[in-house]
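Before drawing any conclusions, I needed to go through one protein's amino acid sequence and its backbone structure tokens, quoted below without any editing.
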Amino acid sequence: MAVRVQEADFDPGAELDALVAGRTDVGAVASFTGLVRGGDVTEMVLEHWPGVTEKALAAIEDEARGRFELNASLIVHRYGPLAPGARIVFVAAAAPHRRAAFEAAEFMMDYLKTRAPFWKKEVTPDGASWVDAREADDAAEARWRD
């Protein structure tokens, strides 16, 4: 399993290189990098419960590996104060064929948005407020249920 929860930034290119280094069984890699949106948001603060969060992310990655034919996968999620444009999350799925890689990456992101125990607070010029769950995220996650 490859899951990291960290305060430090990450390099998506370096993460992809490390994921497939020395592998000849991978025919496709799909990845997603989430960024802090700007606009009115001047900062996003992500909080988590250490230990619990890593276990939840590992369960998401494990479920993806069980559903899709993956050779390797990775989830990296940041916490702490983040400025607009900062990287928040990275998922990657390596598989023999593209469909499994695409679907697994999308699955992991949909589950991260609904099942990962992170709390997000957006700071704007008008103050700070906690971000509520979105119905669109719940609908995206629901399509993966059996």
